[in-house]
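Hi, here's the filled form for the chain we discussed.

Project: internal
Contact: R.S.
Residues: 190
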Amino acid sequence: MDNMSITNTPTSNDACLSIVHSLMCHRQGGESETFAKRAIESLVKKLKEKKDELDSLITAITTNGAHPSKCVTIQRTLDGRLQVAGRKGFPHVIYARLWRWPDLHKNELKHVKYCQYAFDLKCDSVCVNPYHYERVVSPGIDLSGLTLQSNGNTWSINQNTIKRYTVKRSAPTPAPIPPYLSSIKYDGEG
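And the returned structure, exactly as it came back:
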């Protein structure tokens, strides 16, 4: 009886298809099933000869990062990107989207301090363990005190409008009434 049938979690000794199937069960959506399957198959094949790294990936993904895991590395390409199903992307971003944050932007990742092969360290190998990265959202630019002017209208932003993501328009200064109109009388005026 193999390990897969006892624990329902594969190991690096199991067939690639079993490993891919198990890892597919943990994807977060966002990408099509076809793309996800091709990306996972590609990664599992690259790691098949690196059993300890494949086991680290399986542990990281099947436990949602609850257990510490080692770097899971693939060879860095010349342009740093990986092609899967005709689409190119940064490998650490592709796998972080698959298993953690489907709406992730490529600039929102920062490696954890113990990751030795993080993408931005520019090593020959790149860590694609999604639990070796944290999502960081860039702090907003302080727009308080900003004033925009256009065609005599003034728009200003203050701390309250920033919190609500809206901009309030200042009331325009009324134009002076021309002298030739000031003498006009309206119905009902004496």
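Let me know if anything looks off before we file it.
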